[in-house]
Specification:
2 copies of one chain form a homodimer. The first copy, chain A, has about 475 residues and is of the alpha/beta class. In chain A, about 40% of the residues lie in helices and about 15% in strands. In chain A, strand 5, helix 9 and strand 6 form a beta-alpha-beta unit. In chain A, helix 2 packs across helix 3, helix 8 packs across helix 12 and helix 14 crosses helix 16. The longest helix of chain A has 26 residues. The interface between A and B is large, with 61 and 61 residues.
């Protein structure tokens, strides 16, 4: 047995016996080398061996940590809405009231914390645009948006392998407006729209406001959209549009594979279903590998893509976009008669920022932080939450989806957490009929610190009390 | 006869004989005094006398000018849409394409030119907010909007005699989003909505996009909304909501009197019609006297008021608001699921600006400029346009409404002007069925200069050619 294998074996035993707890820091390389009378290289090899076995995890500049026994992913359940129905979600007033509070630990918000975003570079771009041309910054933008920014967005699509023409790009007030405009353009009241379950509640509320009916197709943690089920649903129902989040579903963080994406596109094209792709998390692959948007394989001109800078640069600038395909003219009209145009200064400043900075470098750092946060959340849940709590295995994005053990109520936990000034998103929001009562969504967008660690412990105690 | 009366008489004769043309500058006080051997005080009195008679008009720092024979106001015509119907306006693609062009003299845009707005003070406020708290400027705003700005808006309502609670104020992406949210909140597809004729085409397009039907009530130049006709229409039809612009209708610039406003409110309350008030021009009374919004007399809690900073401070910041009355919670929900929240930085900067500056002082200057522009436009039209051209008599706002002589076609003039790089708004846009083919709207928001003078002359020639 080699020296490093012997050292790895000793550490493995300590972990198995609980002498080293889940989430605990392993001794440093120097401590291991000195303590066991081996070279630093041998200590490093031992740690790498544990990492290969899934027992330890490396954190940049912090060393190695004992990996927690991962919670199981949430249980699969039958999609409830297999015939078209209306969205009948519970009241959201508590949730909206929560968004107006500034005294909460914002674990409810699927947004990166300000510290993870390039605020000083963006501030410099905003100030530069004001100095350079205040009139342009304060005057109306064209309804379709400022050309400089639209050009940057078209270039980005080219980089990630999707050919989107400059003429197709329409600037919007975030992806939420983009989805709204797309639905308003391709549907009429009473039409049926396919959505994932679980899915972002904003999509469901938009569908409800437009008097559309929904069908739900399951999205599974670690697998993404169930495209076999999708084909069945489209065969049995006339579905006008599908609003899907193949790249890191919110709340699950699951990635739909390239093969499944192409199957989805073919099914939708065959059945006359327009695809509205919400790709706001596509840049946030925790692996570092940016998955392609559906547009890459769109042979039928059947996809409207929605994107945003809210999840990667600045949520408060409210700048998103559409790649409008054959519907571009109608979408620009809808935009004009919805909000006239998006604010000028944020558009000009984002264009300036993107011209001057290596966005990929920022994204690399952001993805690493999110992946690290996700791992730490997993560990904290394994350590502090009731046994049997399940957690999604996000491949990207900004959120973690939890399922409490049998009898658990996410609404009770939401209210109890709010009383302790911790914001969470109750699971009932994420389906058309308030399913997922036992679930909860947490943000991965907060940098790990003492306060967050304490909050996860506190949430674990509240979760235990939220089980009947 | 007193000396000044004799001098006034001589000038009157010169005007009548055409020795002094409409729009021409009178000799200066010094020239008059020297030329006629009278004192400066006598010359001033003579000019004041001509002003009282409506023959001359004073312009700040420029002296006295011969008042043009005012064009007659547009002819009254029967309101076409007296039974509920759908909006069937002509295609707008040309108009939208025009908005994206930066090479036009923007006589199409009912917006003050940048030179009329306090750009340096606003730029300073934007820069100050960035320096002071970049995180707040870049992060999400609460869905209802930033408190500091909502407080300023509530204070303004108190100043103008309308009691609006702070809790009712919802920040929107301009008044266009406000009207959208209000209609989406109080109507369902198929409902009937009352609008003015003529009225802003954005209102008509929003109504069309929401699949609502319209009834039209006439608005008359110099008189405003015909409230007798409105009562008849409400008696005969179930009307869910009325979208009205009592303070300076766009395009006419007419003011509905206080008595008529109260009659309108009583009619609507009696018939269960929600009033959506678009008050974006209320601060732009050319007389200087700010008319009250409908909210002042709203005894039934039946009015949703919409406002904006686009027409008085900065169109490109895209900040407007709603005073939501009993519908506030539903409106905040609709806002959240439409655009999540408005951009933060513009809200914070406007609050900072309003705290630091005397807005009333800016408005006084702006109103004077607009009134002066309106007068000069009138004169230019009297001088250069085909005889029989009619023009509205705006009491406020940013636009002038023109009716060509019989056989005239506003669409032909619009296209011909566009070819000469002059933007105008064709009359067909301003009714639900493309009436007002012979009409055109011009902006009063451009400061008078040589270029504008030439453009008005050029438009007059094109107008002559646009008559069959």
């Amino acid at each position: 047995m080699l020296l490093y294998e012997r050292l790895a074996g000793e550490l493995r035993k300590q972990i198995a016996q609980g002498a080293l707890h889940a989430g605990e820091r392993l001794p440093s390389i120097r401590q291991l080398a000195n303590g066991h009378g081996v070279s630093a290289a041998t200590a490093v090899q031992a740690c790498l061996q544990l990492e290969r076995e899934g027992l330890a995890v490396a954190r940049p500049r912090s060393g190695y940590f004992v990996r927690a026994t991962a919670p199981q992913p949430p249980a699969t359940r039958p999609a409830r809405r297999s015939v078209p129905g209306t969205v009948s979600n519970p009241a959201l007033q508590d949730v909206l009231d929560m968004l107006a509070r500034s005294d909460l630990l914002p674990l409810h918000s699927a947004t990166p914390a300000p510290a993870l975003l390039p605020q000083s570079a963006l501030t410099a771009s905003l100030a530069r645009c004001l100095r350079h041309d205040a009139s342009a910054a304060l005057d109306y933008a064209p309804p379709q948006g400022h050309l400089a920014l639209r050009r940057q967005i078209a270039q980005r699509y080219a980089q990630i392998g999707a050919g989107v023409a400059l003429d197709e790009i329409v600037i919007t007030a975030g992806a939420m407006e983009a989805i709204n405009l797309a639905l308003r353009t391709v549907t009429a009241p009473g039409d049926v729209v396919l959505v994932e379950t679980p899915t972002y509640h904003g999509i469901l509320q938009t569908v409800a406001a437009l008097q559309l009916k929904v069908l739900e197709v399951p999205n599974l943690s670690g697998q993404g959209i169930d495209v076999v089920r999708l084909e069945q649903l489209l065969q049995r129902n006339a579905v006008r549009a599908a609003v899907v989040v193949p790249n890191f579903n919110n709340p699950l963080g699951s990635l739909t594979s390239d093969v499944a994406k192409q199957a989805l596109l073919e099914s939708c094209a065959r059945h006359g279903t327009v695809v509205i792709e919400d790709d706001i998390y596509g840049d946030l692959a925790w692996s570092g590998q940016r998955p392609s948007p559906l547009r890459r394989w769109d042979r039928h001109g059947n996809v409207i893509s929605c994107g945003s800078f809210s999840k990667t640069l600045a949520p408060g600038l409210r700048v998103g976009w559409l790649a409008g395909n054959q519907w571009t003219d109608a979408l620009v009209r809808a935009k004009y008669f919805s909000t006239v145009g998006s604010a000028s200064l944020p558009q000009l400043a984002l264009a300036d920022y993107l011209q001057r900075h290596d966005q990929e470098r920022h994204l690399r750092r952001l993805r690493r932080m999110l992946a690290d946060n996700g791992q730490r959340l997993h560990e904290a849940i394994a350590r502090h939450w009731p046994a049997g709590t399940r957690a999604s295995e996000p491949q990207g994005g900004l959120s973690l989806w939890l399922q409490l053990p049998p009898g658990g109520d996410g609404r009770v936990l939401f209210e109890a957490a709010l009383a302790k000034r911790i914001g969470t998103s109750p699971g009932v929001l994420f389906s058309s009929r308030g399913d997922y009562v036992d679930c909860l969504r947490l943000s991965c967008g907060l940098p790990w610190d003492e306060r967050l660690d304490r909050a996860l412990k506190q949430l674990g105690q509240l979760a235990a009390a939220a089980i009947r």
